[in-house]
Amino acid sequence: EANYPAQFISEAVDQTRGWFYTLLAISTAIFNRNPFENCIVLGHVLDKKGLKMSKSKGNVVDPFEVLDSQGADATRWHFYTASAPWLPTRFSIEDVAETQRKSLSTLWNVYSFYVLYAVLDNFNPLDYKDFVSDNVMG
């Protein structure tokens, strides 16, 4: 009972008439209450041509290959920025590589620039812990 109703459930759009409806119908009939408090319906992940991925079509992307070549952060960031979660999302290793190049590489370069000159100048942020800025942003 401590976990009922579920606080959050998430499934793909094809589960709206299956899993979501079954949960709701059975829970309402037996317990007269909702089985979940919050629900998000996710769109499908499509191949780079916009077709549903399928082993029989041979257009499935191996997730471990993507993680090994691009990394988990780039993959997560791609899904976060590619489209709204409830819409279908096109996916390819090339798209993740582009996301990595445009977003995460920029952040890495900013960090690398800072570290390079902080080391050259023997910068220690603890020397400035009492610094108060008049700048609203910082």
TrEMBL record:
Supply the SUPFAM superfamilies for this chain. Nucleotidylyl transferase
Q: Which GO terms describe its molecular function?
A: ATP binding; isoleucine-tRNA ligase activity
**What keywords tag this UniProt record?**
Aminoacyl-tRNA synthetase, ATP-binding, Ligase, Nucleotide-binding, Protein biosynthesis
Q: Which residues form the Aminoacyl-tRNA synthetase class Ia domain?
A: 3-82
Question: One of this protein's GO BP terms?
Answer: isoleucyl-tRNA aminoacylation
PANTHER family in the cross-refs: ISOLEUCINE--TRNA LIGASE, CYTOPLASMIC (PTHR42780:SF1), SOLEUCYL-TRNA SYNTHETASE (PTHR42780)
From the Swiss-Prot or TrEMBL record, give the protein name: IleS protein
- Report the source organism: Clostridium perfringens
